[in-house]
Structures
1.
Amino acid sequence: MIIVMKKGADEADLTAVKKKIIELGYQPHVIYGETRNVVGAVGEEQGKEKLQALLLMLGVENVVPILKPYKLASREVQSQSSEVEIIPGLCFGGKEFIVAAGPCAVEGREQICDTAVAVKKSGARLLRGGAYKPRTSPYSFQGMEEDGLKLLAEARDMTGLPIVTEVVNPRDVDLVAKYADVMQVGARNTQNFALLKMLGQLDKPILLKRGMSTTIQEFLMSAEYVLSEGNRRVILCERGIRTFETATRNTLDISAVPVLKQQTHLPVIIDPSHATGHASLIAPMSYAAAAAGADGLIVEVHPCPEKAASDGPQSLKFDDFQVMMDKLRAFVQVADREMA
Ligand code: PEP
Ligand code: MN
């Protein structure tokens, strides 16, 4: 249920409403608005009618059901788009179109530091790089683990770029959180509910990728797991889904961008590398992402893609990344957004 507070309702009214919601067995989540506040009361669907009693309380204007199964992620609860702050001056979901770039995996000091310097020069605002890699084969490179996280931190110190890196296993959450500015949940873990609940308890932004066979509704239910634990800083990432098509690694569901934008207030970005599997398709899909209204991109860039330990064919060389970023500006402007 959404409890809409009156314009003039004060803090005491809000506190009383939150207390009553808890008494009735629900969790209150306050969304502070410019003119009025609303409180999302989330919990068991069955018996939620008893929340109608809140209508009688001081400062309450209305009590309305949330129709979508995802509650806190829904635009019904919060019509205004969320801005997810990474560091001061850097937000997903605001006016700026944000690009995160870097190698699929951290492979060594020179590789990650050179990439950080190059992508920063081209206008990337975050450095990506996996230290824990969820590989299809157990015999493939699994990542440098904590040594990789340390190298990411060095690259951050050198360039000032915040780092986004994947956490694969719930037991590594604390360790990865020690280094990461943004915790990435990969497509293979979109419905790892134990992991999502743990990340919901962190005070850190979460980049949640869409699973290769999750519907948009299931994707939003995964976001809901994080939000319902108290962490509101979730960024959604469409990275291609499985279809019958084999010309590309996955099929980029570009319409997921406007659909998600209608359904949720959370920022939405595109990963054109995993979506296509081919370096030559990254630029056109990035332009399409900007045109479709995405809030940013996460792109794989490698100093020498031919030698990459993972995902070389879908990684851009430094020069090609620079060319793409230069052209991207025009699309971003037409979409009424900005690039730094
Ligand atoms: C990645 O970003 O390196 C990755 C493994 O992506 P995905 O989870 O989308 O496959
Ligand atoms: Mn990859």
2.
Amino acid sequence: MKEFKHFINGEYVSSANGKTFENRCPVDGSLIGQVHEAGRDEVDAAVRAARAALKGPWGKLSQAQRIELLNKVADRINERFDEFLEAECRDTGKPYKIASHIDIPRGAANFKAFSETLANHPTEGFRLDTPDGKGALNVGHRTPKGVVAVISPWNLPLLLMTWKVGPALACGNTVVVKPSEETPATTTLLGEVMNECGVPAGVFNVVHGFGPDSAGEFLTSHPQVDAITFTGETRTGEAIMKAAAVGLRNISLECGGKNPGIVFADCDLEKAVEGTMRSAFVNCGQVCLGTERVYVERPIYEAFLARMKEEVAKLKLGRPEDAETSFGPLVSHEHRDKVLSYYRLAVKEGATVEIGGGVPDMGAALNDGAWVEPTIWTGLADDARVIREEIFGPCCHIRPFDSEDEVVELANDTDYGLAAAIWTENSARAVRVAEQMEAGIVWVNSWFLRDLRTAFGGAKQSGIGREGGVHGLEFYTELKNICIKL
Ligand code: NAD
């Protein structure tokens, strides 16, 4: 049985309060281990270690030296690929086939992509005329923000955590990470990698625990934290924003979504089915960018629905390590209760269950896991809660539409604004519709495809700020203007 300790100042430490909680595998409900729950003391120790490290050897490294270290971290994750893969899949239940292509490689790549952008980013400079004719130079100079708190979710634990830790460290900050209580394993393992690569003690710290009245709240309200970057639910983002208001700390919030997929009659049907299948069902539908509302132009509505049902029926539920498994369990029983409550609500709200809608019989060995059936509904009203609220499960609602104007309005009729996917072979229409989407990212004939140098973030209640590429610089650095009189 495993024990997940905090990682503070380069060492694994237990909670002084002796508090632990269970970490269970959602595949079969088995106990993975005990996780230490941080009290205020551990959080304080982690933040102090991070603050001290800013002034230690870390703070004296050149940008090139930091980047070299972070490249080592990326390489070391890849060298220990199988350990990260096993730990991630045990915590989440996701198929090896998916995690080995997405979670772990991207987890490593996040330490390289931002470093490269940073290394090539120019410094701003202006020459100012002055009355004496001699002028002045204004030069932009970036310094680290300081101690950055990273609060991460459970759906892509390593990927989404390193997506923030990579740029934070590349910019010279130090971090205290609070991974989700559901998925402590890979963040804990990363501590070993940091030590192996010679990242100075205190630069990367981890505290475990829950949100309110636990490690999450203690960390985000700690006065020595300079900035908070968060990925998770919109309601949690609101709580973090309140905590950050004290002391005017910077925030970056990547929150929930209720993303539309728009399928025009002039699409390549097979491409649209393949992409929509992935966007609704990969990772058991637990992807913030996933599609839960699908709008299909009426001439191809029946054909599209029939093809989707055929493909859902082919999803292979099973153990993560089995090569043919394409669909795992939800992350926990708690989350399954939430998803199943929406399955019941959909029926109450008048949906036709086209496929799925319940709990599969996985056999004696797996029936204690957090399994649900992949589900498609039709027939719901546009104001149904199932259409308006983020479910974060393997399910979508498919509805016909008749005109471009109508579908633009339907797609935007949501509190969220994270992503949209458009399927059409008419490029003028694709651009026209994409420009009208109220979302941080719009895919045309694709999904989950993004150059890491581009901006990422949400509109409306899907978040505040943009990270990725040079955009992350605005959050992870303080931009100073140095004015030199000539
Ligand atoms: P969550 O908000 O419940 O938890 C996220 C993290 O916040 C966890 O580590 C949790 O312990 C912590 N937390 C909870 N309450 C807190 C508080 N009061 N103070 C400080 N920390 C607190 O989210 P989740 O259930 O782990 O993840 C699923 C959600 O994340 C979905 O809404 C999904 O859309 C969203 N998400 C968004 C993105 C994005 O990039 N926009 C990416 C992935 C997931």
